């Protein structure tokens, strides 16, 4: 890091050495604690999940400021909620287009401001 060049960030494939190092960095930073419910997690037992705060599909990056540790339960719940939100947004869009109405825009965690909403 002393060279002044930004470090190349790993792709979240779970297997590369760079990804494992980044995951460990976030575990240490977050104190081996779920950042949602506060439960302690451990490395290697499947309880610690590295979560993109703003999902990659919504433009979130794989950088420390967009990553956090969640426990298995919180990460699974978050994923299910995001899936339901996306399904509702798609249904609203299909309905509005079928009825000839204007598109319905749904704010996301990463794009909450009018003018940069996604649908």
From TrEMBL:
Keywords: Endonuclease, Hydrolase, Nuclease. One of its GO terms (molecular function) is endonuclease activity. The keyword Magnesium does not apply. Coiled coil: none annotated. Residues 21-76 form the HNH nuclease domain. Gene3D superfamilies: 1.10.30.50. This is HNH endonuclease.
């Amino acid at each position: 890091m002393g060279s002044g060049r930004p470090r190349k960030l790993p792709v979240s494939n779970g297997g590369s050495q760079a990804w494992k190092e980044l995951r460990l960095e976030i575990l240490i930073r977050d104190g081996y604690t779920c950042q949602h419910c506060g439960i302690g997690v451990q490395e290697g037992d499947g309880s610690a999940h590295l979560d993109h705060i703003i999902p990659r599909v919504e433009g979130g990056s794989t950088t420390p400021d967009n990553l956090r540790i969640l426990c298995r339960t919180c990460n699974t719940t978050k994923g299910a909620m995001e899936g339901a939100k996306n399904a509702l947004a798609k249904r609203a869009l299909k309905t509005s287009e079928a009825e000839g109405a204007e598109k319905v825009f749904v704010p996301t965690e990463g794009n909450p401001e009018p003018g940069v909403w996604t649908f």
